[in-house]
Automatic annotation (TrEMBL):
Annotated Amine oxidase domain residues: 45-503
Source species of the chain: Nocardia farcinica (strain IFM 10152)
Family matches, as Pfam families: Amino_oxidase (PF01593)
Name this protein carries in UniProt: Putative amino acid oxidase
PANTHER family found in the cross-reference section: AMINE OXIDASE (PTHR10742:SF342), FLAVIN MONOAMINE OXIDASE (PTHR10742)
Domain of life: Bacteria
Any one of the GO BP annotations: amino acid catabolic process
Gene Ontology MF term list: L-amino-acid oxidase activity
């Protein structure tokens, strides 16, 4: 998500630091009893699980269906070494599991520019700096109390719900417990329903487009609250060498032969005191035995694996029914950076009501002007060198409609809209890459879990339960099991939970 607002302290904000902390028991890799563990899925969660288990002396094999590790971390590299992010692109400062590994692997970071007053709005055919938002507001028929900065209006709207919960309910929510009647009520309310009770249709159209949240208006309000207050009210960083630097670091830290690419797991069978994995690699059958298994694939991919004995009906329904959001991006490679040397934009994002929705600028040449919220060039010469622009970042219905177009039409739509935002920029474009997460093999069904109204209570309680009870051999991980949906933090946190469960079972087996 990409809503931004000027940060104001929130009562209970430290709850996010507590909720997203790296688990203390795993900080020291105490040796465990010998055991063989299969990990299905080489996304960042699966890689972290394998890394932590191997550090404790367990024998680990990672099966990955595709020809590359990383899952929904996908850094696209162009011929000249420039890169852009087709998946995860930023790390909030309270995502302590993610930051733990960034520090452990000594990966260089720089500030991610989430808000830039010199970036643009293009709404209702009016193009202005975000700092000059009043000129856009005049194009909407707003009530007296709805005038002003739309992001301030959004902040007031969401803050009324968040602070009204009280600390005890916020703690419960971040622990995944929505049994409280008030939490259940908000979980069953969509962002649109909540907004329309408090804003006019015109105000919501303005706020929704200025923040991007219009495209998540059918999501559960609780999803939006966690994202907004826990993730966008803190500083963020990006990895200098691309987000896939984290993936490459995990892979390099694994023992040779751990990772089996292009290997599809089709069935997992618990048999006596072990787990048998069935699958295929390049057409050849695969059949191997393990003591335990960590399944670290998204819910749509998990639904394609036969598990025996079968999962409980409620768990199967949750896996099959959980809502996944759609997301597409278009990256442009340009010979130079007109948005910098013409428009003075260094990092951040511009928001529009055009089909491209959002445009995000590289932050590699951005430096903050001391004592201000403005950014300027780190190196004026760099503005005339090649760069990668995220020229379209689309969500939900907007993303699905865009993805349905032929590739040539997608390119035409993006370039036409971008030329309205930055006239003349198309002359600098020399390559285009479109990416749709709905279409990716093994990840099909959406970009990330994002719950619809009612799904918290219906699905979250049982979807990640270890199997089979009471002596489980199969454990589950993935961002869909965490409260931090759509983020690397969620994948890592759930993977670390699975690691702790495996180690508990290994310890019990040794004591028996």
């Amino acid at each position: 998500m990409s809503a931004t607002a000027q940060h104001r302290p929130i009562r209970g904000e430290s709850l996010f630091d507590e909720s997203f902390a790296f688990p203390a028991p795993l900080r020291t890799p105490a040796p465990a009893a010998p055991a063989r563990v299969a990990v299905v899925g080489a996304g960042v969660g699966g890689l972290a699980a394998a890394y932590e288990l191997q550090r404790r002396g367990l024998a680990v094999t990672v099966f990955e269906r595709t020809a590359r590790p990383g899952g929904r971390i996908r850094t696209w590299r162009f011929w000249d070494g420039t890169h852009g992010e087709l998946g995860a692109m930023r790390i909030p400062g309270n995502h302590h599991c993610t930051l733990h590994y960034i520090r452990e692997f000594a990966l260089p970071t720089r500030p991610f520019v989430n808000a830039n007053p010199d970036a643009l709005y293009l709404l209702r055919d009016t193009r202005v700096r975000r700092a000059d938002v009043a000129r856009v507001v005049n194009g909407y028929r707003l009530a007296a109390g709805e005038q002003g900065d739309p992001l301030t209006l959004l902040d007031t709207l969401l803050r009324s719900a968040w602070e009204g919960l009280g600390e005890h309910r916020r703690k419960a929510l971040l622990a995944g417990d929505v049994a409280d009647p008030e939490l259940e009520r908000l979980a069953g309310t969509s962002l649109w329903q909540f907004a329309r009770e408090r804003l006019s249709a015109e105000a919501w159209d303005l706020v929704g487009h200025a923040s991007g949240l219009l495209h998540y208006e059918h999501a559960s309000l609780l999803e939006v609250l966690v994202d907004y207050f826990g993730l966008f009210n803190v500083d963020q960083v990006e990895l200098v060498d691309g987000t896939d630097a984290l993936v490459r670091a995990f892979v390099a830290a694994l023992r040779p032969g751990t990772l089996r690419l292009a290997t599809r797991v089709t069935a997992v069978r618990v048999d006596g005191d072990g787990v048998r994995v069935h699958g295929e690699q390049l057409g050849a059958p695969v059949e191997e035995d393990f003591d335990y298994l960590v399944c670290a694939v998204p819910a749509p991919g998990l639904d394609q694996i036969e598990i025996s004995p079968g999962l409980p009906a409620r768990q199967r329904q949750a896996i099959r029914g959980m809502n996944y959001a759609s997301s597409t991006k278009t990256l442009l490679h340009l010979r130079d950076r007109p948005w910098e040397y013409r428009d003075g934009i260094y990092g951040g994002g511009s928001f529009t009501d055009l089909p491209i929705q959002q445009v995000w600028y590289p932050a590699d040449n951005a430096v903050r002007v001391p004592g201000t919220d403005r950014l300027t060039a780190r190196d004026r010469d760099r503005s005339h060198r090649p760069a990668v622009l995220t020229a379209a970042y689309l969500w939900e219905n907007n993303a699905r409609r865009f993805a349905a177009l032929p590739e040539a039409d997608r390119t035409r739509v993006v370039l036409s809209a971008l030329d309205k935002l930055h006239p003349g920029i198309v002359a600098s474009v020399d390559d285009v890459v479109h990416w749709t997460w709905d279409e990716q093999v093994g990840l099909g069904g959406g970009a990330f879990a994002y719950l619809a109204p009612g799904e918290h209570a219906r699905y979250l309680a049982g979807i990640g339960a270890a199997h089979p009870a009471p002596a489980p051999r199969i454990f589950f991980a993935g961002e869909h099991l965490s409260v931090a949906h759509a983020w690397i933090q969620g994948a890592l946190q759930s993977a670390l939970d699975a690691v702790a469960q495996v180690l508990d079972r290994v310890s019990l087996a040794r004591a028996a």
